[in-house]
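Translate sequence into structure tokens.
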Amino acid sequence: MATYPRTGSILDSTTRTALSTQVIIMVNNEPVGAIQEFSINQSRNNKRFGEIGTDGTVEIVPSTRADISLNIRRIVFDGLSLTESMARGFRNVQSQRIPFDIIVIDQFSGTADDAIITTFHNCWFKSIDKSYQADDYIITENASVDVEYISETRGGEAVALSQGVGGGRQLAGVQIDEAELLADSGQRRGALDFPGLISAAY
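Result follows.
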């Protein structure tokens, strides 16, 4: 009988599914409340290279920098507009003059040292819309935010280096690249300007 690989997922009585209730969103050391949605969009265009006489793609390489944006939906609560709730001293997009950082703390592992800290650096509001609806009487605001770059750390280092913390699954075959770790933890803006790109391989 054939032996098939197993996923190694941990199945026991301990819940290991990440929950939104374990996430805190902070701006300027102030927690932002009443957020109904916080979605992160990361994208980068890739270029396909073909060759005459070759039926298929020879190589795929990134052709642009990574674009990062946020979509935020918040109930107008505590008398604060969405921008004011983020410790900004303005209400309208036209008024922003200085970028700001948004910090997301994911306490999934249970302690402050094990929390995953995601920082969205140098944020600019791109759009804000507010809707008044008769069906539910609750006023909500939606904002689109452009982000210069993103970093994630746990215990002050790249998250991948502490995989398995708090009883999570530890993958044995993780492919670690120094440039990727530096870019992921925010010590570099990206990984493609690192020396040795052409010869890089796992």
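Note: The longest strand covers residues 116-131.
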